[in-house]
Design a protein that fits this description.
The model is unreliable at 1-39 and 158-182 (pLDDT under 50). This protein is mainly α. The strands form two sheets. The chain has a two-stranded antiparallel ribbon with strand order 1-2. Strands 3-4 form a two-stranded parallel sheet. It is globular. It is built from 21 helices and four strands. It has two domains: 2-53; 67-545, no CATH class. It is a multi-pass membrane protein.
């Protein structure tokens, strides 16, 4: 038995020796190999039996957690990808901040007309913004991803037009079709489809808001004999004419974001808002149009912004693609429907939180509103980071450059976490100063002091949650983004409904913190399990580990 084992072992080693030598010396002569064959097999080193056993496979390490949490201080250094993220995010943050500032300017001028007019504008803007969040923002996010993917595929060669992959796994570079172009302009089906949908959505919104302003005021609880009713209807009906340019401008902004150009939208937004600030006092006071003048000046500025963006876009691409496909429209509608459902889940949870805070009384509601205003204002920074991550990830993913896609994921999450920690420190020490800019009521300020732990402490979690949203969109993972948000919203809403009556306002803030925490958990679970489109992102790293 021992002799048989020894002979087998020697034969095994001799065979391996020959194979190894041949691989290392492919150009060796046949005479050399003949000399090797003359070596007696018995003279070869006899290996113990256990050495012949195959080595166990190396255990795979989760690539996300391994790279994200290890050597954080080393990896947070500013590199090429970090600079790309910041160069996209900074102008985007300024553009995002321009619209709230413009609303404050409008409110300041209208406030001189009277409290009823100011309240009427507030109600009308709330209705208008609700419609915008439900329909316009999903179109903006989808356009950014689709255009970034098409732009990345187009960079493989000059003068190409892209086919469409209607699956949920993003684009397939094998569907690229050759298409001759002229005047150095490229047709992008995603751009043409987005602008066409934007025009249709904008017209539908304009008709609905203008003809249904009275019904919408009834839904908002504004009675017919209220002093706010007439000015609110007038303002909303006039603002409705600005719906088409708003949606078209958002589609154009999404296109520029897909091209990783956030400076052009910033330029258009700032100049349009400056025009609005100039027209406001002229139309409201000089021409005596009152609240109608405020609406007209806003609509004019919105058409101006859309014109500037379309003019710049027309110089780069064909606005009407010669090969626009019905499948592209279907893809937009399918993804848009998912994101609308996601938006409804977010709005329901946030509205329930506001409702629970309002039940605590006016003082508690005022304090809660101040906390939420600050919380939402600082979120603009992380929204901009999410936008940058979305565009860069969509580009790398569509080109199958998964190493770059992984680097973008790590870097944008790290910058997001660092931004959240920085904001937490700033708000913890400066929140009382911010609160005093909203009110001087001691009772309300006492409430805001209790909310500083929520506003400041939730910043790291909130920042990462928003960045994860951008990563979903970057790989067109719209289905998971929608379904996970509905699930998270249901759990958080149930907690809010049960905790707020028991713990009061702290229960509301705990519910909102749970809402953001579950969003982060759902995001890391999706990335960590490498399911759906994320399987491709980690495929290269898995092969190396194997």
């Amino acid at each position: 038995m021992a002799t048989t084992t020894t002979t087998t072992t020697s034969s095994f080693c001799y065979s391996n020796f020959q194979t190894s030598y041949s691989k290392r010396n492919p150009n060796s002569s046949s005479s050399s190999l003949h000399l090797l064959r003359t070596i007696p097999k018995s003279s070869l080193r006899k290996l113990p039996k256990e050495n012949l056993k195959p080595k166990p496979k190396k255990k795979l390490v989760n690539p996300l957690t391994n790279s994200f949490f290890s050597n954080f201080s080393h990896q947070i250094r500013v590199d090429e990808i970090g600079l790309e993220i910041l160069s996209i995010a900074f102008p985007a943050a300024l553009a995002l901040a321009a619209d709230p500032i413009a609303s404050l300017v409008d409110s300041a001028f209208v406030g001189h007309l009277g409290s009823a007019e100011l309240a009427a504008v507030g109600v009308s803007i709330s209705v208008f913004n609700l419609v915008s969040k439900l329909l316009n923002v999903p179109l903006l996010n989808i356009t950014t991803s689709f255009v970034a993917e098409e732009q990345a595929l187009a960079s493989y060669g000059n003068d190409i037009s892209l086919g469409i992959n209607t699956s949920d796994q993003g684009f397939d570079d094998t569907s690229v079709l050759q298409q001759p172009l002229g005047e150095n302009k490229k047709p992008f089906p995603a751009v043409s489809a987005s602008l066409a949908l934007a025009a249709g959505i904008g017209i539908a919104e304009a008709i609905t808001l203008s003809t249904g302003s009275g019904s919408l005021m009834n839904i908002m609880g504004i009675s017919v004999d209220s002093p706010m009713r007439l000015p609110a209807e007038q303002f909303l009906a006039l603002r409705a004419f600005g719906a088409p340019p708003i949606v078209i401008a958002l589609a154009a902004q999404g296109t520029f974001r897909g091209f990783m150009d956030t400076k052009t939208p910033l330029y258009a937004t700032v100049t349009g808002n400056l025009l609005n600030a100039i027209l406001d006092p002229v139309l409201i006071f000089f021409f005596g149009l009152g609240i109608g003048g405020a609406a007209i000046s806003t609509v004019i500025s919105e058409y101006f912004i859309a014109f500037v963006l379309l003019r710049e876009l027309n110089s780069k691409v064909l606005l009407v693609s010669p090969n626009i496909d019905g499948r592209r429209i279907i893809q937009y509608l399918k993804s848009g429907g998912l994101l609308i459902g996601r938006t409804v889940a977010v709005l329901f949870t946030m509205t329930l939180a506001t409702s629970m805070a309002a039940r605590q009384g006016p003082i508690f509601m005022a304090g809660h509103q101040i906390c939420m205003e600050v919380w939402l204002a600082v979120s603009l920074l992380t929204d901009a980071l999410a936008l940058a991550g979305q565009a860069l990830l969509a580009s790398g993913y569509s080109q199958r450059n998964f190493k770059r896609a992984q680097d973008v994921i790590y870097k944008v999450l790290q910058i997001g976490l660092l931004t959240g920690v920085t904001l937490a420190v700033i708000l913890f020490f400066g929140f009382e100063t911010f609160s005093r800019s909203f009110t001087t009521d001691p009772a309300v300020l006492d409430i805001t002091r209790t909310g500083v732990l929520f506003v400041a402490g939730s910043q790291p979690i909130t920042a990462v949650a928003f960045v994860l949203d951008g990563l979903y969109y970057g790989v067109s993972d719209f289905a998971y983004a929608a379904y996970s948000m509905v699930f998270v919203g249901l759990i958080s809403s149930l907690f809010l409904y049960l905790a707020a009556p028991v713990y009061g306002l702290p229960g509301v803030w705990m519910g909102l913190f749970l809402f953001m925490t579950l969003r982060v958990a759902a995001g890391f679970w999706r990335l960590g399990t490498r399911s759906g489109p994320w399987k491709l992102v980690w495929s290269e790293l898995e092969q190396k580990n194997n």
